[in-house]
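Key idea: predict the complex, not the pieces.
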Amino acid sequence: MAHTDVSGAAAIAGLGITDVGKVYGRTTNEFAADAVLRAVADAGLGIRDIDGLLTSNGMTGGGTFQLPDTLGMRDLRLNVTLSAAGATASAAIQYGAMAVATGMCEAVVYVHADAPLSAPGASASSVYAAPPSTPLEGFRGVARANGLLGANPLYALATRRHMERYGTTTEHLGAIAVAQRAWASRSPLATMRDPITLADHQASRWIVEPLRLLDCCLVSNGGVAFVITSAERARDLAQPPVYIWGWGQGHPAYSIERGCEFGLVSGAVRSGAAAMGMAGIKPTDVDVCELYDCYTFTVLITLEDYGFCAKGEGGPFAASGALAPGGSLPTNTGGGQLSGYYLWGVTPLSEAVIQARGQGGARQAPSHDVVLVSGNGGVLDFHGTVVLSPHTK
Amino acid sequence: MSGPVSRDEASAAFFDAAASGQLLIRRCAACGHWQAPYTRGGVALDRCAQCTSERLEWAPASGDATLVTWTVVHSREGAAPPVGVVELAEGPWLTAPLDADPGGLAAGMALVVGFSRPGGGEPVPVFRPRP
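Result:
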């Protein structure tokens, strides 16, 4: 079976999004179960129609192990928890599509849920911070003494390198934050809906130079689930099918020596080329982008690596207004993880399904024949891509 | 901001050399590949990333480096000293504090290694602009 033979063989037939954002008092498993039931109902199916389950966890893992018992999902033919950090969701859709394309399963649910926010006023970032300082022993001690703890400073190193090499500026990053907030202002799902200006971005405090507060994603609670089934079956279900045209992954494993492209080139190059090749499309065919945005910079480097602009031109491309409402490449139309809600890769994936169906309401992109989705995990260590369309191949 | 660093068995040779002002890095006895003594996360890789040999030996580095990238961490206490990724003359990258004005930093600038003893502990590498 050639890669291209399964292009369009599977479709996303159901989408379930729980209350997301600053939603308290529910466990990861409760969010997951809620999301699964919503997705199954959205597809017009019952829970007994599901014979495959793919799960992933955020910072509050483990809860999804209880799902089959919680929901009475008996005799599943597939039940696996996946982990590729922020690239997990894009990968899960790939394995779900393969499971239905090969006949292993009839209908697979993929669900991701997380509940890192414990209560109003609790530090949103504390769950993502490094654990309390232990004695600084050996080389791990040296690394900890450097003070680069958690993801923020490591993405800052990547961003600074890109700035030094290509002339990318904090204002370029700001254009991404401003564009996504403009989309968020039109989305009822978004946590941060008040429009911002470039001046607001520039006035926001440094978190880790060169990243400001408004360059960094939110922290959110919630769950999102998807039903994946065959293209034929999807056509008979309740929602317009969203066909899975292509997919790919790219994981660079950066060397830490001369010639390393950390901060300059990401796994999106290989992943994007694989996904677009399988789908038989070029970047110019893409109508909508939903790109993993743990930071503004992640969007910028992904746009370059997918080929929407030349390497090094991501900053000017964003500053041109291309990504914003009315722009040539509507991107992160729900506000993304910067302004919408942060549930790792299911944030861009869920918005892609909404856009492909044409159900975006006030934020619907005018053309949505081809929707490109990215996932990114670790510090540009993992990358996954999915190409979706409301049209059969 | 950091407490003293203590030694363990795997880092003893490195700290002994550092105490006399010498930066030790790893060299593969099988293929000659130079390797950083530890990753940015403090992991000492136990195989050559070039040829997978386990025959990694300690070898002195020149101490010359160029700046690849850097960051300044902000917190309630204000801005911390800059921390950089440097490319050693031998090729490996090392993540280390920079003894420099952040406003004067630029990728490619020439640096030299020195050592400091935060909290009176073992000597850790610090890079400063080459005079």
